[in-house]
Design brief:
By secondary structure, the chain is α+β, with helices and mostly antiparallel strands. It has two domains: 224 residues, Thiolase/Chalcone synthase (Peroxisomal Thiolase, Chain A, domain 1, 3-Layer(aba) Sandwich); 155 residues, Peroxisomal Thiolase, Chain A, domain 1, CATH 3.40.47. 35% of the residues lie in helices and 26% in strands. Helix 3 runs parallel beside helix 5, helix 7 crosses helix 8 and helix 9 packs across helix 11. It binds acetoacetyl-coenzyme A. The site of acetoacetyl-coenzyme A has 26 residues, from helix 2 and helix 7. Acetoacetyl-coenzyme A binds next to helix 2 and helix 7.
């Protein structure tokens, strides 16, 4: 039975920090960001937009009422969770109005967990062919003012509906994963920002790619010529480009090399303007590729490299389904252009604002622009969300 991605949606914040602003404020040359990291802008969230509101918006964009009666599992993958106990997917399940007899859970392993979510969804649909599983990767990447990672922050959620007979792409059942216990990037529960060993993390990313790819090739007698495109986890696009170059053998056929390089450029179009969205960033790359490539066609294979610090990596592939373009949008860039540009002062105030809780655990917020949902206030330590009227 063919199982895979039937629908895919995306949501990000309504505010953006153009990296020219950051470069000027931090005394850096803009070329460092635009060429050195291959980033142009970062999505910035206010306190009223969090992983729950973005996850709900990303899913709301793609789900019909019929989907909401068929979904029996909601998985939210995140490393910027809002509660140590209650899963973000429980809020999302409620905000979307999904039928009650569903399983809702949150998954964590840094930027990797969305991939585990897709795999669990696949196994579930294999046993229950009429089921639909909603997998959402939602995160806010926050490194701190003037930190090394500041220019790679971002925010967003990618929602995917996993079904049998999918209309976008099928899973090829070829996953190869690798785990290594390292401290390259981590966030203890007492810290709001991560600890990062930046250069070490880039080495681990590249080495995990190289070794997992070698194992994948060995197990599946496969090589780069089998793929129309290779999508990567995108902490910042330049690192992924280094990865692509690393796995391309010197004697790679020129046509294959050009195809993979051209499609790589297309896969980073959205991330260049959004920044790192942790769990969702691989899938934002996939979305960018699918929505902007003019050359992809049915039966093309797309290879994906998932990496989560700590670290777990996985390589697997998808095969495009006939008619996949009908399930995609072609005007997403226009949404990104609509975000409100922030000055450096506005960014620092907005992004780092924290709930000012009373002794009873109540907090009110100023009104900010959000997508279809917003965190309205906190009451007795409970987060109260609302669905906005116009949606
Ligand atoms: N013109 C053109 N390029 C320039 C330039 C200029 N004027 N100035 C600098 N550059 C280039 C540098 O040469 C460098 O490119 P190369 O790596 O190709 O040499 C690039 O810009 C970045 O410069 P630095 O290495 O000096 O940058 P930095 O001090 O900002 O640090 C970083 C980079 C360590 C990756 C930092 O951004 C960071 O800590 N990021 C967070 C951690 C991260 O993203 N790690 C990735 C792997 S971990 C992971 O994948 C999980 C995850 O999502 C976090």
């Amino acid at each position: 039975m063919a199982i895979g991605i039937d629908k895919i949606g995306f949501a990000t914040s309504q505010y953006v920090l153009n990296l020219e602003e950051l470069a000027q404020a931090r005394g850096q040359k803009i070329e460092k960001y635009k060429t050195g990291l291959m980033l142009d802008a970062l999505s910035i969230t206010p306190i009223t937009e969090d992983i729950v509101t973005m996850a709900a918006s990303a899913a709301q964009d793609i789900l019909t009422d019929e989907d909401k009666t068929s979904i029996d599992m909601v998985i939210v993958a995140t490393e910027s969770g809002i509660d140590q106990s209650k899963a973000a997917s429980v809020y999302v399940h409620h905000l979307l109005g999904i039928q009650p007899f569903a399983r809702s859970l949150e998954m964590k392993e840094a930027c990797y967990a969305g991939t585990a979510g897709l795999h669990y969804a696949k196994l579930h649909v294999e046993k229950n062919p009429d089921s639909k599983v909603l997998v959402i990767a939602s995160d806010i990447a926050k490194y701190g003012i003037a930190s090394a990672g500041e220019s790679t922050q971002g925010a967003g959620a990618v929602a995917m509906l996993v079904t049998s007979n999918p209309r976008i792409a099928t899973f090829s059942d070829d996953n190869v994963a690798q785990t290594r216990d390292i401290y390259d990037f981590w966030r203890p529960i007492y810290s709001t920002i991560p600890f990062v060993d930046g250069i070490y993390s880039t080495k681990q990313y590249l080495d995990s790619l190289e070794t997992t790819w070698a194992e994948y090739q060995k197990r599946h007698q496969s090589n780069l010529a089998d793929f129309a495109a290779f999508c990567f986890h995108l902490p910042y696009p330049k690192l992924a480009l280094k990865g692509l170059k690393k796995i391309m053998p010197k004697d790679l056929d020129e046509q294959v090399k050009n195809r993979l390089t051209d499609n790589f450029d297309i896969s980073i179009l959205y991330s260049r303007k959004v920044g790192n969205i942790y769990t969702g960033s691989l899938y934002l790359g996939l979305l960018s590729l699918l929505e902007n490539s003019q050359t992809l066609k049915a039966n093309d294979n797309i290879c994906l490299f998932s990496y989560g610090s700590g670290a777990v990596s996985e390589i697997f592939s998808l095969q495009l389904v006939d008619g996949f373009r009908k399930m995609l949008r072609n005007n997403r860039m226009a949404d990104l252009e609509k975000r409100q540009a922030l000055t450096i002062g506005e960014y620092e105030k907005l992004f780092y604002e924290e709930a000012d809780l009373t002794e009873e655990g109540n907090a009110k917020f100023d009104t900010y622009n959000t997508g279809g949902f917003a965190l309205e206030h906190i009451q007795n330590h409970q987060r109260i969300y609302m669905r906005k009227q116009h949606d």
